[in-house]
Amino acid sequence: MENDQKGLILESYNIEGITEEECRSIFFGWVLALNDCTDPLKAIRNLLATYEKSYPKHPMTRVLNEGLMKENFKGSRRRGRKKLKQFRQLVKNSNPTS
């Protein structure tokens, strides 16, 4: 799937008994794996369109819906993207296998 190239979100729906905390961790990994030209809100909406009907009560569905909530975005989008880019660089630099 275009919005889930590593299959992280798909796999979360296949894990029986997965918790909301585990889904949140997977979600953050998914966000960090997005390329810079991907609109995260559009990608989340596409994932929800794919999975929400089949899994309305799944913890990942709740996490994805939380990802769309405005109060989860602090500051301007531009500043948020800059911080995300800085965070990605920090993670990349701290990973000795990269």
Key words describing this protein structure:
0% strand; mainly alpha; 98 residues
Describe the structure.
- The structure is a single chain.
- By secondary structure, this protein is mainly alpha-helical.
- It has one domain (8-94).
- The chain has 5 helices and no strands.
- It has helices at residues 8-14, 20-33, 40-51, 59-67, 77-94.
- Helix 3 runs antiparallel to helix 4 (59-67).
- The chain starts with 7 loop residues before the first helix and ends with a helix.
- The model has no long low-confidence stretch (mean pLDDT 84).
Present the secondary structure layout.
Elements: H1 8-14, H2 20-33, H3 40-51, H4 59-67, H5 77-94
Helix pairs in contact: 2-4, 3-4
Main beta sheet: none
How far do the termini sit from each other? 25 Å
Radius of gyration: 14 Å
Helices, by number, come to: 5
How many domains would you count in the coordinates? 1
The portion of residues forming beta strands comes to under 5%
Shape: globular
In the predicted model, the low-confidence regions spanning at least 5 consecutive residues are none
Q: Give me the count of strands.
A: 0
Summed over residues and divided by their number, the pLDDT gives a mean of: 84
Class from helix and strand fractions: mainly alpha
Instruction: Give the proportion of residues in helices.
Output: 55-70%
Topology pattern, helix = H, strand = E: HHHHH
